[in-house]
Amino acid sequence: KSNRASKQFVVEASQEYVDRTFTSQNDVDNQVIAAKMVLSYPVFGGQLSAGVEFTDTDIRDEYINDQSIVPSSYTTIKDQNNSLFAEYSRSTPIGQIGAGLRYENVRSDYFNNDIKIEEQSRQYDQLFPNILLATQLEKVNLHLSYTAKTMRPTYDQLSSNVTYVNRFTLQTGNPFLKPATIHDVTLVGTWKFLQLMMSYKNEKNTVIYWAEQVEENPAVALLAYRNLEKLPSLTTFITASPTFGIWSPQASVGFIKQRLAITTNNKSIVLNKPMPIASLINSFSLTKSYLLSLDMNFQGKSNYQNVYLSENVFVVNVGLTKSFLNDQLQVSIKGHDLFKGKKEGKLLYNHQMDLYQINRYDSHKFELTMRYKFNSAKSRYKGTGAGQKEIDRL
Q1: Which among 32, 27, 28, 26 has a CA at the least distance from the CA of 58?
Q2: What helix, strand, coil percent values describe the chain, rounded to 5?
Q3: Could you report the per-residue pLDDT of 273-286, keeping only the tens digit for each?
Q4: Burial of residue 339 (number of CB atoms within 10 Å: 0-12, 13-18, 19+)
Q5: pLDDT tier at 376 (50, 70, 90 boundaries)?
Q6: Under 8 Å between Cβ of 114 and 140
Q7: With helix as H, strand as E and coil as C, how does 73-123 read?
Q8: Among 363, 285, 369, which Cα is nearest to 334's?
Q9: CA–CA separation, 178 vs 230, rounded Å?
Q10: Biggest alpha carbon distance in the chain?
Q11: Phi and psi at residue 68, to the nearest 5°
């Protein structure tokens, strides 16, 4: 159970319009009940696991604007998810094989001022299979998998509250959003300290940021969300993790490339520029008690959904850890983003307008951490927790 309260106070001075003040208050109460049970049993030389998972979520969201510039609202979402799942795996002459199936029954009821809105309430019955094969060819370990899963919109994305940014910009959610379904085929090959990963993903009903003009006043932009029919993408990475004495580097380089064409300003544009990503994680064991780390991460200009990322990002972090008392006490000092390379430039393509936003962060900081391990015993509980995906949606 959690509560969230926020207040907004905006004072506008204008040479062309009337000066005005905007105030709002938003109170959100969340409650989640979750349970999960998994049973495993050896069957035909393999392992069969089956279980059930249940989540019940209650969201109460009250938004008040005293000036009535945007509508006040009181909404409630009651969401219930009942899931059944089973998975079987065993060793065979060609390698380790496995297959699983998950069934989800979801019912989401949407209320406005305690009146149920049928058009915005939803019910889904979906099946999500997964298949895997792990084998070895010569000295190369291979892992091939297919997974289907869902990604449901967050409750903020489903909210009908209209948030005031300024007199020309409003922001809201979209209660009509559908959950995204992701089909993912991934191949991972490992040889000594080298690893190659390739993944093809097709996401149906992808949720994207989308802006349109307010019908009553085209000068005002309404930022919201919508579903794309599909968004296929290819991800490729190669990683090397050798060891040279006290130095243990991990170098990774790859890209993510989507395939998307949208219509904006009455013309079709292609947003296929790949996203290059590279990292170099360095660990130096100076002595048995001193550990030095130097991490570098790079992300290049690219397209992501209906956005062009117009800035290269290069972040460097450094850290030093000292252990005392047979590793019971650890003291760490870290420097984050030493050269202030974290920055953002986003060009958002929409129906009849383009929005460009530049963000600069005060990400240059130092961190001191002290950890002490008391008499610790390994937990016998091996569960993964219930309702984590639902908690993440909040």
Answers
A1: 32
A2: 5, 70, 25
A3: 999 999 999 999 99
A4: exposed
A5: low
A6: no
A7: EEEEEEEEEEEEEEEEEEEECCEEEEEEEEEEEEEEEEEECCEECHHHCEE
A8: 369
A9: 12
A10: 80
A11: 60, 30
Contact 36, 385 (CB under 8 A): yes
4 vs 99, which has greater pLDDT? 99
d(CA 71, CA 8) in angstroms, rounded, equals 15
Report residue 215's pLDDT band, with 50, 70 and 90 as the boundaries.
confident
The CB-side HSE value for 165 (13 A sphere, CA atoms) comes to: 10
Amino acid at site 286: L
> CA torsion sign, 209 to 215 to 216 to 217?
positive
Give the span between the Cα atoms of 238 and 120, in whole angstroms. 44
Within 8 A by CB and 6+ apart from 129, the residues are 99, 100, 101, 102, 146, 148
Pair 363, 342: CB distance under 8 Å: yes
Q: Provide the terminal-to-terminal Cα distance of the chain, rounded to the nearest Å.
A: 11
Which amino acid is located at 258 in the chain?
Q
Task: Determine phi and psi for 126, rounding to 5 degrees.
Answer: -135, 150
Residue 207 CA to residue 226 CA, distance in Å, equals: 6
Give how far Cα 350 sits from Cα of 210, 213, 228, 238, 346, Å: 6, 10, 12, 35, 12
Residue bearing the bigger pLDDT, 112 or 377: 112
For residue 156, which of 91, 64, 82, 224 has the smallest C-alpha distance? 224
* CA-to-CA separations, 233 to 38, 142, 258, 360, in angstroms, rounded: 33, 22, 4, 28
Chain centroid, CA 230 distance in Å: 18
Q: How far is the C-alpha of 365 from the C-alpha of 260, rounded, in Å? A: 38
As a whole number of angstroms, the distance between CA 335 and CA 170 comes to 38
For tokens 């998975």, what's the residue? 87
Q: How many CA atoms lie within 13 A of 8 on its CB side?
A: 20
